[in-house]
Alpha-1,4 glucan phosphorylase
Amino acid sequence: MRILVDIEGLTWARAWEVCVKTCAYTNHTVLPEALERWPVSMLEHILPRHLQIIYEINHHHLQEVAKRYPGDMDRIRNMSLVEEHGEKRINMAHLCIVGSHAVNGVAAIHSEIIKRDIFKNFYDMFPERFQNKTNGITPRRWLLLCNPTLADAVAEKIGEDWVVHLDQLTKLKPLVNDSGFIRTIQVAKQENKMRLAKQLEQEYGVKVNPSSMFDIQVKRIHEYKRQLLNCMHIITLYNRIKANPSGTFVPRTIMIGGKAAPGYHTAKQIIRLICAVARVVNNDPIVGDRLKVIYLENYRVTLAEQIIPAADLSEQISTAGTEASGTGNMKFMLNGALTIGTLDGANIEMMEEMGRDNIFIFGMTVEEVEELKRRGYNARDYYNNLPELRQCIDQIDSGFFSPNNPDQFKDLVNILMYHDRFFLFADYESYIKCQDEVAKLYQKPNEWAKKALLNIASSGKFSSDRTISEYGREIWGVEPSWEKLPAPHEPRETEESSK
Ligand SMILES: *Cc1c(COP(=O)(O)O)cnc(C)c1O
């Protein structure tokens, strides 16, 4: 608007029309702390002209709201671009919705939550703007390049068309009854696990058992992603082994990796706790190679490419309603890991594609989380009623995992007991029971591998090619061009040279 009005000399109305046709808004989170609200005092200092323009946009916008909902002052206040309570701020998401011809979430459930919850009033007013575009991943990087063993096995059966038409993977479905191919899938996974085991031994000095289940959670560290819930499962397994040292347990190597934002203290405490638990578990001779815990440092795309092809189990355990989509979940699915997850983000659509029997679902639904919020969440009720949970929390609290600094994790326990926005204790029991089912199935390698194959064969929807076509057709009004474009290193034909 600043360029079109101040520099190009367009009328306000014409400039606004161009802006709205030019902009589309993709929302990526519903967590309130991540939705930007810029202090007016800051804008006054560094972008004074933009602030004037925002006020003018808001004036026109609120006139339309008032016309549509005469006298509805609550709605007008709620839909304003300017927040007046407390420090005066500009709500950037509201500005995006008002200034865009399309608004979308990144998984079906997320797009629904946007419409009925955080942006409800805007949906009432502009229903035609709201869309869904489920995220995707590129099969070139996340299968062809990172997992050549599996990629070759797939190509041997169905050719190479899947590289650009990932839906073709459905052709693998009948092969669940081909014991030779099931064996091939198992061998590919085993090779990838051996390679990773060797790397881990070199880098961390931890000897991992390559026939143990590789149970992996890699993603940014955040309370809503619930790495702490995974950690509580680890402690529970440890306590069970210690209580029954001669018992048989399905061996697991549990890997957790990810970075914390520099200023996010709680996330850094979560990393410290996982490392502390790993130190105790990995050095306990009673445990042996039945349980190993590894914190993967410096998690990034190049490390993801090594780790994901070696995963047996993918952990996608966010509180329902908090993970907009997730894409890590799709990478694991495409590489033949089974998922343990909540009905959140794209996990729901993954389940729809592969069928309920081929994924381990646990925990509250979005509706159940909302019901719990209405009822009031009391973590202590779960603590009192679940002895394994109580033992685990008492150990963290008393310094069992941090004997040199017994108070180190008191803040984490305090959050879990009294300020937990993500309801870890409410999903603990269901998570542990689901993990027991995972262990049971892992003892039947053929059944496991069949489900892994059905995961791979059902992952076609999650190609970013599909996502990008949808953005093109349904938001930008463009059709794909199949004309071959030059590669980045090739000279591009300019208008001059084509004349
Ligand atoms: C795919 C990817 C993510 C996203 O993972 P989620 O589990 O969806 O949060 C984060 N970091 C890296 C390095 C990735 O490759």
Residues 2-132 form one domain. The longest strand covers residues 213-218. The two ends are 36 Å apart (CA to CA). The mean pLDDT is 97.
